Amino acid sequence: MQLYLIGGFLGSGKSTAIKQAADILSDRGLRVGVVTNDQGAQLVDSNYFKSFNLPTREVVDGCFCCNYDDLDESINSLLQKNQPDVIFAESVGSCTDIVSTVVNPFKKFYPSQKVQVSVFADARILPVLIKDESYFFEDEIHYIYEKQLEEADLLVVNKIDLLEGEDIENVQSIVQQRYPQKQVVFQNSLSREDVEAWLDLLEEDYASDRPEGERKALDIDYDTYGKGEALLGWLDAELVVETDGESALDSTFQLINMLYGNISHKELPIGHLKFFLDGEDYKRKISFTASDQEKFDYEEEDYKTGRMNLLINARVQAEPEELRNILDEAVEKVEESDGCEVHMHNIACFRPDYPTPTHRMTS
Questions:
Q1: pTM over 0.85
Q2: Which residues of 205-215 are buried (b: 16+ CB within 10 A; e: fewer)?
């Protein structure tokens, strides 16, 4: 079994790359499993992967670091029930220090098992954050971002297709200057060719005899790390949108745009704002990140229904109570404008706890 640990900041495109990789590996005759992770308990990404019938396990209510035993159990559950050839374990986007808290413990308990660490970064955000310029987030959140990049075996600069000309050259130059010894891939995860190249590198590294001693544990300030996580507000919510006719999908799109618009209007930095739409025979994921500027431009679809389930994961630099107020306001407005009814269930608003790893092994 090959184990690929996928890290990187919120909104860097990890899930999209994993789904593309799973399709490629499946076409090669390999079985794939996925372990998702989040500080909350209602995961858009889990529903997304399951909608494609990918064997999926979850580590919830904290990062892999602080729930190492749950990660171990999830991997073993996949191995026992699904016998995957490859497992992708996708760490929550606010987590770092995974070499000391996940990779090294795993190597201790399973000495023959290699673990490859890919860290994803959004090509649009990376140049500003690693040059210490004022941008979206507070300094402590920048700190998490930089530490994530520092411990990558393979740094995947993603969404490169959203840049043009000089911007692409600028990103490449910055990364080469900052990380001259690091293996770097510039990738569009919607491109099968790009993801195949990433997978080929992972497989080459997996098969190589690179000494594990080359991988260094982070020198990290946990107080700064913890403060950075605590600056992010988490909102998870399950909603049901109902209409008298068959326009629930359109009303759901309106609600998504209204929620995103309210957050943008208040100029609150978005780590990730994710939605999973689930109808009887309709499933779709929609995402916004800090670098997105426009609302979701949807085209009218033929799918007609009077009921649509909507799962929301919002990770925003804001007070959790403010996120709840923004949600309530968006629901009230869409009910008034569209004449629909929105039923809210299982709403959780919180900040992540101080990171307390199950294990921390620096060698």
A1: yes
A2: beeeeeeeeeb
